[in-house]
């Protein structure tokens, strides 16, 4: 194999967190190479989400998610303005449709206030109708800081900044082996050997496997959840103005089926959250024996499944039956019908699952000698990416002595 020159840091993963980290390191004068196994950046979670800039409403105060989302959203808006990236701060409403949802709505409002959201306010039935005339709700929250964007475009811009600071982006470079030597790390890829003094794992759906490849026990297992979206047909898009969310189930890190206006035009409804049979499987019937065995052999998965099997069955039913999916949408917009939506995009979320069966509900980063492993960075990681990237870069500088 051919050998490349040695870098200060090699980053595995060309999603938005990997490129944001590379950008932060490059701006600090640290030499970086980003290794992405696909032939393009943002191929998985980053490029298949709903494109929402989150405000920080949902996350427990003091967590990494809360701190980085609020700070990251401000940094992202500023970055987009500086680099001419299309985006819009359009706002959203979170709607309670039943009396029993009101306590959770109260909790969300308190969280948003503690997290420092600008302009967050409680609204009643009349104001809901003014903002979204077709929505049925008894109370809600108006969140003006929420926006829409194309995160794949953001990722490509981050990568351009990495290159401007002397960093390298290498596509189609799957890391097949990691060798830890006394004075550095050797990464074997199809195009040759890459040598680096230090390593950062931003591998998303493969992050736990990459950690094990590096000789690090991640202490968790990635379980993939497929999120399926529907598109609203053109002559019914007047039913939605901006973004409409339900009150989420506090037991899960998923936000529930919602309506989203996309920055490129059009409207989406979704996603659900169905256990995926393949980590990078976007088809409804995608299947990998290796990936199924990974979670089926994990005690934490069965502990989770035993606790939430009814919820999981409901998600599968909505996946298989369009009518069931539309029924969930009609809780927010009663006028919507089965003919108003058609199947749209699909994303797969890398959800970290702990051995006790609990879903990891915060960003989770593990350090090892000359390594940093980002093991749980689902939503709102895209919104928070600049903040997360800077935090990881600072950790790297401190831990690696850069």
Q: What does it look like?
A:
By secondary structure, the chain is an alpha+beta fold. It folds into two domains: 7-46 and 152-220 and 362-400, FAD/NAD(P)-binding domain, CATH 3.50.50; 90-146 and 222-353, 2-Layer Sandwich (D-Amino Acid Oxidase, Chain A, domain 2), CATH 3.30.9.10. 32% of the residues lie in helices and 26% in strands. It has helices at residues 16-27, 64-83, 102-114, 125-131, 151-164, 207-213, 289-296, 299-320, 322-330, 385-400; strands at residues 7-12, 32-35, 52-53, 87-88, 92-96, 121-124, 139-143, 147-149, 168-170, 177-181, 184-189, 192-201, 221-232, 243-246, 258-261, 267-270, 274-275, 341-353, 364-368, 371-376. The strands form four sheets. Strands 1, 2, 9, 10, 11, 12, 19 and 20 form an eight-stranded mixed sheet that branches. Strands 13, 15, 16, 17 and 18 form a five-stranded antiparallel sheet that branches. It has a four-stranded mixed sheet with strand order 6-7-5-14. α1 (16-27) crosses α10. The longest helix has 22 residues, at 299-320. The mean pLDDT is 94.
